[in-house]
Amino acid sequence: MSFDLNQLNFASEDSLALVLPKEKLTYGQLKTAVQKRMGDFPQKQELISVLAEEDKGLIIYLLAIIQSGNYPIFGQLDCQKQEWNFPKEPLFIGQTSGSTGKAKHYLRDWASWEAGYQAMQTVFPINEADLIATASPLATSLGLHTLFLALFLGKPFVHLNKKTPNWSGKTALFAVPTYLLKHSDCPLDLDQIYLGGGSLSASGLKRIIEYYPEAELFEFYGASESSFISWQNLKTSKPAGSVGQLFPQVQINVTADHSLTVRSPYLFPGYLGQTEAPVEWQLDDLAEYKEGLLILLGRKADLIDHGGNQVSPAEIEKPLQALGQEAIAFGMPDELYGQKIALFCIQPLDLKRIQAVLLKLPAYKRPETIYTAKEVPLTANQKVSRHYLAQLAQKGKLHEI
């Protein structure tokens, strides 16, 4: 099953498709613009790089590549052509962040995303929204997923960037938690908020509810390769570490060492160069499954190897978070121990209380260095990254207490 712009479920050609800062495009106008641009591409099933254009140009360019039978690719390609192996009808080829190793190109197909969109309609009130918006870059998995969700639903799409258009209507926003925590003055009135792609602390959740007390608030958990795995209504509850109940038709396996494997109709077709689509996919996250809830314990890649002891950052962070102190533990290279433990705390902080809590930890789990700032430095994709914090600390760009 391939993506076909002509088969989308919009009410009419005059239905709004894109709401831009200076103009609005109907679905009819969008189709015409895409068809015109399709002539720029050969009918050869070639890889074509998606350029960094402004929103309208990028969306039309992307859709024209797909409609012409070619393969849009994001990120730098460094493999040989003879290694390429495509599913019959890929939607696009994205690039992982490479946080757990070398960056990889993953493939997405329309059938898996369409199945996920159909499931979303059964658990979320997404059909009630008049507008679908995202604050994530359009080259990211979340940004693209939201764009195609809007197209699937036949609703207008808006990208929150430097220039946000005016809009009145029931709006659903898909974003990482850090966006709302940094933009309490979001330029759109939000009726539905869907948060994913980053951890959400209890204090952060409280602030978001204070910012948007009337909005319906949901959290989802997944990855570029897996799509949605679980979800929860944040206005109901958020148990510590929980990312909610399993998404429809998702099956998981959690081993004794907390490794998490998922099977679902929403899995990606594989990485560029793979010969077969994966039947299941193992995540980098460590997890537990208790009483119908998926509980995250941290990432394998985030484990700190301190003198041979594998220390989970969560073991250090949770007692501090219980005090209301937002903190992030991470490892830094150390000649003697392999990695030393560092801690980043968001201001304001009570150093005496923090130290008192840390003293209750076993000696090998205690941070050697504490850094602080008014907010967490984020990656280019507006995410919290322990690896990025370690890089900044090594370069002397974090304030040490």
From TrEMBL:
Keywords: Ligase. InterPro entries: AMP-bd_C_sf, AMP-binding_CS, AMP-dep_synth/lig_dom, ANL_N_sf. It is an enzyme of class 6 (ligase). Residues 81-272 form the AMP-dependent synthetase/ligase domain. Its EC number is 6.2.1.3. Belongs to the ATP-dependent AMP-binding enzyme family. It holds the Pfam family AMP-binding. One of its GO terms (molecular function) is long-chain fatty acid-CoA ligase activity. This is O-succinylbenzoic acid-CoA ligase MenE or related acyl-CoA synthetase (AMP-forming) (MenE/FadK).
